[in-house]
Amino acid sequence: MSALTATASLIEVLSAYHELNSSGVEERSGEPTPLEFSRGVRQNFPVVFRGAVSHWKAVTNWRAAYLRDTMGSESIAVAETPLGNADSAVVREEDGKRYFVKPHERQMPFGEFLDDLQAKVTSESESAMVRYAQSQDDNLLREFAPLAADVGRDIPWASEALGQQPDAANVWIGNERSVSALHKDNYENLFCQISGYKRFVLISPYEAICVRETSLQAATYVPNPHTQRLAIVPDEPASEVLFWPTVDPDSPPGTAWWRYCRPMEVELAPGDVLYLPAMWYHKVSQRGSDEGLCCAVNYWYDMEFGGAFYPGVSFARQMTQMAQQEEEEEEEEEEAEMWRTQAW
Ligand SMILES: O=C(O)CCC(=O)C(=O)O
Fold first, then answer.
1. 298 in ligand 1 pocket by Cβ < 6 Å?
2. 67: CA distance to ligand 1 center in Å?
3. What is the CA 219 to chain-centroid distance, rounded?
4. CA distance 330 to 44
5. Which residues contact 263 (CB under 8 A, 6 or more apart)?
6. What are the tens digits of pLDDT across the range 281-303?
7. Is pLDDT above 60 for 251?
8. Ligand 1 lined by 100 (C-beta under 6 Å)
9. What distance in Å separates the CA atoms of residue 270 and residue 155, rounded to the nearest whole number?
10. Please, are residues 189 and 183 in contact by the beta-carbon 8 Å criterion?
11. Can you give the CATH number for the domain in which 323 is found?
12. From the CB of 135, is ligand 1 less than 6 Å away?
């Protein structure tokens, strides 16, 4: 198969995909039955269940004073970045090279962390550090154990439909300064909003060609011991993060492929649950509550690698690589042609 055929085939696949699927996130009211939920999973398509966890104690209880009292002297892992951009592609000033940069992580007393988040609501002078509790390591039953009784251990209708318990339950606490850059996870995600609002931009895994996935060298934000400013330090030994999407859907690139992308947007309010299907690209930004806080808990369930979905997405990725190679060859040919013309 020639690379030209790969480009044409991808365009066909994307057109058919868009014709056969909704252009927006489906909305339902309340909790679905396991059967209703499994229909969404079968289609690998996002659905928002409005108010599906509004009965959780957390939705009424997780105000700043309650969180402070209940967590007591507990210390938590906090991600620190200069711009609220944990795990994202950033150009390092020193060498002009783009890296995949992880946040600096520090242990911090919970009360101090909350003070810092809330200070942003009143203070004019924003701190040089943006802090976000987002450790994504099943922290609900560990560092947030004092709060665990206020939310579910799992999402019963999802556990029944998926035939398993979640692999991880993660607490996210931040404010409007943190943004999670476009990325994807190999998990079925049940994302539950507790306070404040989260805005998701969602892109189908079949649209991989549109998001310009690239391999990036890994680096970490490290505080300078004298100034405390965060500097980007390449990891030692050097390692690479593969297939990282480098497009920002909120500042779309002027590429020809972006025309074939159909990003979907949804905002979650307290009590809402988003089913974010495995391997979908998502960018997440947030707005705080009246107290300046944005709290959420998400449940990651192992995705199913059997069946047709995963091989289908892998095939689309192979086609993407072939189409990209075709573009490069075309560019090289155009350049060679330009030189030939100039030589005349
Ligand atoms: O809430 C966020 O900032 C990011 C959430 C996310 O990426 C996830 O649940 O996979």
1. yes
2. 21
3. 19
4. 35
5. 201, 202, 203, 249
6. 999 999 999 999 999 999 999 99
7. yes
8. no
9. 16
10. no
11. 2.60.120.10
12. no
Residue 179 CA: nearest ligand 1 atom is: 3
User: Per residue in 158-191, pLDDT tens?
Assistant: 999 999 999 999 999 999 999 999 999 999 999 9
The CA 285 to ligand 1 mean position distance, Å, reads 9
Is ligand 1 within 6 A of the CB of residue 230?
no
Q: Please, which residues bridge with residue 300 across strands?
A: 168, 189
Rounded CA-CA distance 132/125 in Å is 18
The model scores a pTM over 0.85 = yes
Cα(157)–Cα(33) distance, integer angstroms: 6
Residue ranges making up the domain that contains 337: 3-343
Residue nearest atom 1 of ligand 1, based on CA coordinates? 284
Q: Are 175 and 286 in contact (CB under 8 A)?
A: yes
Domain count, the chain: 1
Categorize the per-residue pLDDT at 123 as very low, low, confident or very high, splitting at 50, 70 and 90: low
pLDDT tens by residue, 39-84: 888 889 999 999 999 999 999 999 999 999 999 999 999 999 999 9
Across the chain, mean pLDDT equals 93
Residue 97's DSSP bridge partners are 92
Q: Is the pLDDT of residue 1 over 60?
A: no
- Please state the three-class secondary structure of the chain as a single string: CCHHHHHHHHHHHHHHHHHHCCCCCEEEECCCCHHHHHHHHHHCCCEEEECCCCCCHHHHHCCHHHHHHHHCCCEEEEEEECCCCCCEEEEECCCCEEEEEECEEEEEEHHHHHHHHHHHHHCCCCCCCEEEECCCCCHHHCCCHHHHHHCCCCCHHHHHHHCCCCCEEEEEEECCCCEEEEECCCEEEEEEEEECEEEEEEECHHHHHHHCEEEEEEEEEEECCCCCCEEEEECCCCCEEEEEECCCCCCCCCCCHHHHCCCEEEEECCCCEEEECCCCEEEEEEECCCCCCEEEEEEEEECCCCCCHHHHHHHHHHHHHHHHHHHHHHHHHHHHHHHHHHHC
